[in-house]
Design goal:
The protein has two domains: 2-37 and 55-154 and 264-276, Thrombin, subunit H, CATH 2.40.10.10; 158-261, Beta Barrel (Thrombin, subunit H), CATH 2.40.10.10. It has helices at residues 2-18, 104-109, 194-201, 266-276; strands at 24-25, 47-48, 57-61, 67-72, 77-80, 91-94, 111-120, 135-139, 155-156, 166-171, 185-192, 209-213, 227-234, 237-249, 256-261. α1 (2-18) runs antiparallel to α4. The protein is built from four helices and 15 strands. Its main location: secreted. Pfam families: Trypsin. GO terms for molecular function: serine-type endopeptidase activity. Keywords: Disulfide bond, Hydrolase, Protease, Secreted, Serine protease, Signal, Zymogen.
Length: 285
């Protein structure tokens, strides 16, 4: 019954998408966090993220201890990069924060769920792997939302990000030490002219991508597929929306990086979820 209801919601979103000027959310219960009484201060050049302020951050677990990142967008789907699929994702860890933590509190807030379907954008790798770097992971079962597990907002039918200059990236990728982080990291990145990334990487940065950078921080190996987010007001409330996906950057993780622009692919996201919402389609090996 829940899958049937979800299919109706996605179909409604597709209708809204077709009507310019309409606005909706993929998940109504998205983009909000639970207030916490204290702050924990401390991605390359990043700092420790707040424990409960990134409940949509997903650790994607692949073969041979390889991992990448993603974001929870519905109770059944994780959004990530198509390049993340090279890690052969088998499971996703939701409510993850400290990968070393074994306390009862950590374990009670964390859920590890099998991935039963990997869906890369059909044009990824068609001409070059730097384009259409987006994918969906379907979890083997629906997840119940909590203070530590909650979807990020995706705008449907309305462009929200045109005037945003600063974005937040999160992930467990390599830090200044050259090692992947055990604790979820966060960094603030600034919107830059696409021409800067085009010159840096000798690739054309088109309207489906975002060029970002910072003098002090950058995303790195292990952060691929993670969300690029910002706060926006929606119906008089402030929510966290996802605007990008970590795609690629320099080998030394310094300076500029290229991110997949999520709103450019909203039509594909909605159609793909609608097509794969039930269990009748072919399972991945």
């Amino acid at each position: 019954m829940k899958h049937f209801k979800a299919a109706i919601v996605v179909a409604a979103c597709l209708f809204l998408w077709a009507n310019e000027g309409s606005a909706a959310l993929l998940e109504e219960n998205c983009g909000t966090t639970r207030p916490i009484p204290r702050r924990i201060r401390r991605v390359v050049g990043g700092r420790n993220a707040e424990r409960s302020l990134n409940p949509w951050a997903v650790l994607v677990l692949g073969e041979n201890d390889i991992f990448c990142s993603g974001s929870l967008i519905t109770s059944r789907f994780v959004l990530t990069s198509a390049s993340c699929l090279f890690a052969s994702p088998k499971q996703v860890a939701l409510g993850e924060y400290d990968r070393n933590c074994t306390s009862k509190e950590c374990l009670s807030n964390r859920q590890v769920i099998d991935v039963d379907r990997q869906i890369a954008h059909p044009k990824y790798g068609y001409d070059q792997i730097s384009k259409n770097d987006i994918a969906l992971l379907r979890m083997a079962k629906e997840v119940e939302f909590s203070a530590y597990i909650r979807p990020i907002c995706l705008p449907v039918g309305k462009r929200f990000g045109n005037n945003i200059r600063d974005f937040k990236a999160v992930g467990w990728g390599k830090t200044d030490s050259g090692e992947t982080s055990m604790i979820l990291q966060t960094a603030t990145l600034e919107y830059l002219a696409p021409e800067l990334c085009s010159r840096k990487f000798d690739k054309v940065i088109d309207k489906s991508q975002i060029c970002l950078g910072s003098m002090t921080s950058d995303t790195c190996n292990g952060d691929s597929g993670g969300p690029l987010s910002a706060l926006k007001k929606y119906n008089k409330t402030r929510r966290v929306f996802q605007f990008g996906i970590v795609s690629y950057g320099s080998a030394f993780c310094t300076g500029l990086g290229v991110y997949t622009k999520v709103e450019h692919f909203m039509g594909w996201i909605l159609k793909t979820i609608n097509k794969n919402i039930n269990d009748t389609a072919r399972q991945i090996p």
